[in-house]
Design brief:
Structural class: alpha/beta
Oligomer: single chain
Shape: globular
Strand order of the largest sheet: 1-2-3-4-5-6-7-10
Strand content: 5-15%
């Protein structure tokens, strides 16, 4: 496995400053935003698409720093009931697929998206319970009329460009756990998989090694981000929490740097499960810890992951 970083946390740095920082930290890879929620602070998307020479020079710059680009990320909602937002995010995704092909990056990451509850809806509607009966009916409409047709087409387009799409399972979207990811993959094809981020599952009680086992070859990319549960708040209100991420004292859970929500053993078990599942690509750390500075969050995640990561291929079990 390789250790990388999702670079929006260094948005204030220039591309070369960011690359020097990542190289100095001893990392192997960068995951770059190409639009949507992550922005595109380190990519001139249109310029790179317009010039093969610029794309070649960009690839050389990355290599000169001893790095690879593990993925291009353009998280958005191409299923949004607002047609303008849906068209925008679809265009960003398809543009990112073409840029990934030009830059020889194998994976594009985004969200699955979430429709509304009808063709006249204005905002997404994430349905989490089958009752009252109209909830299940609406959920099946979202899948059969919106999610499956869209992702069949988008996945086919990506396949033509030699790119795999990794959907990040996330609350408020159609794909939010292993079951929903595998359902959509079965419908859209094996060029659709996941960017697995434990922080979006651990607070809901998911056993990550078991989820990794279930997903297996559908894991195309991996985000290293932790989450801490506040036991006093969850004891009163459970884990569903709509409070601002800034209201840490009152929230049921908050994102933390790797190792500050779950201990080293948990992260070692996650890395072990990834290896057993056949994943041997990049573990890309993501910093969204409101209790730490960017620098401390970056460094503490690296320190933990360097102890947990299985960098070298295993030896033959000579003792058998």
């Amino acid at each position: 496995m390789k250790l990388g970083v999702f670079t929006p946390l260094f948005a204030k740095l220039s591309l070369e400053q960011m690359l020097r920082k990542v190289q100095a930290a001893g990392l192997d890879a960068v995951e770059l935003g190409a639009g949507g929620f992550p922005g595109a602070d380190h990519l001139d998307v249109e310029g790179l698409l317009a010039s093969t020479d610029r794309a070649r020079d960009f690839r050389a710059l990355i290599a000169d720093h001893g790095l690879i680009v593990s993925a291009l990320s353009c998280h958005g909602n191409p299923l949004h009931p607002n047609a303008d937002i849906a068209r925008r995010d679809d265009a960003i995704l398809r543009r990112t697929v073409r840029l990934a092909e030009r830059l020889e990056v194998p994976v594009v990451i985004t969200f699955s998206g979430c429709p509304g509850d009808s063709d006249t809806a204005r905002i997404p509607n994430w349905i989490t319970s089958p009752w009252p009966p109209e909830m299940l009916q609406t959920l099946e409409w979202q899948w059969n009329e919106k999610a499956i047709p869209y992702w069949r087409g988008a996945t086919a387009d990506a396949r033509e460009h030699g790119i795999r799409i990794a959907l990040e399972p996330h609350p408020n979207f159609i794909v939010h756990n292993a079951d929903t990811a595998l359902r959509l993959r079965a419908a859209a094809g094996d060029h659709l998989g996941v960017n697995l981020d434990p922080s979006h599952m651990l607070w809901r009680g998911v056993d990550m090694p078991q989820a990794i086992r279930a997903l297996g070859p559908a894991i195309f990319h991996f985000h290293a981000k932790d989450v801490a549960l506040d036991r006093a708040n969850t004891a009163v209100n459970g884990v569903i929490d709509g409070r601002s991420y800034r209201d840490i004292a009152q929230r049921a859970w908050s994102f933390r740097s790797v190792g500050h929500g779950h201990d080293l053993l948990v992260w070692k078990q996650i890395m072990q499960a990834l290896r057993v599942a056949g994943y041997d690509y990049v573990v890309s750390l993501e910093h969204e810890d409101a209790l730490m500075s960017t620098e401390q969050g970056f460094q503490t995640a690296i320190d933990t992951l360097k102890l947990a990561l299985l960098r070298e291929a295993p030896d033959e079990p000579w003792w058998t």
